[in-house]
C-alpha cells in the first residue's frame, strides 16, 4: 500500500499556490516538498501543517493506493 498526493497538487492549482510557496507557508524544506512529489511517506505533523495552510482535511490532500501484486498488501 502506498499513498499519492495528486489531490494536494490539484488543490494547490485551484488555490493558485506554488509548491515553493506552500513550503514557505507551512515551514517545510524543499526536501520535504520533493517527498510529496515522489509520493513518499511524510510525518503526520507535516500533513497537519499543510492542512492548516490549505484549510482542509488530510483526505483532501492524499489518498491510498493498493498495489495489486504485493504479497504484504493482501488482505486475509
Describe the structure.
By secondary structure, the protein is mainly alpha-helical. The longest helix is centred in the middle third of the chain and has 11 residues, at 44-54. The protein has helices at 6-15, 19-26, 30-37, 44-54, and strands at residues 2-4, 63-65. It has one domain: lambda repressor-like DNA-binding domains (434 Repressor (Amino-terminal Domain), Orthogonal Bundle).
Shape: globular
- SS field, number of helical segments: 4
Note poorly predicted spans: none
> How would you sum up the major sheet?
2 strands, antiparallel
CATH class: Mainly Alpha
Short description:
49% of the residues lie in helices and 8% in strands.
SSE layout and pairings?
Blueprint: E1 2-4, H1 6-15, H2 19-26, H3 30-37, H4 44-54, E2 63-65
Antiparallel strand pairs: 1-2
Amino acid at each position: 500500500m502506498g499513498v499519492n498526493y495528486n489531490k494536494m497538487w490539484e488543490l494547490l492549482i485551484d488555490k493558485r499556490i506554488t509548491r515553493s510557496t506552500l513550503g514557505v507557508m507551512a515551514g517545510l524544506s524543499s526536501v520535504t516538498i520533493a517527498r510529496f512529489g515522489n509520493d513518499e511517506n511524510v510525518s503526520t505533523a507535516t500533513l497537519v501543517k499543510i492542512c492548516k495552510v490549505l484549510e482542509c482535511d488530510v483526505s483532501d490532500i492524499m489518498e491510498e493506493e493498493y498495489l495489486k501484486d504485493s504479497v504484504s498488501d493482501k488482505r486475509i
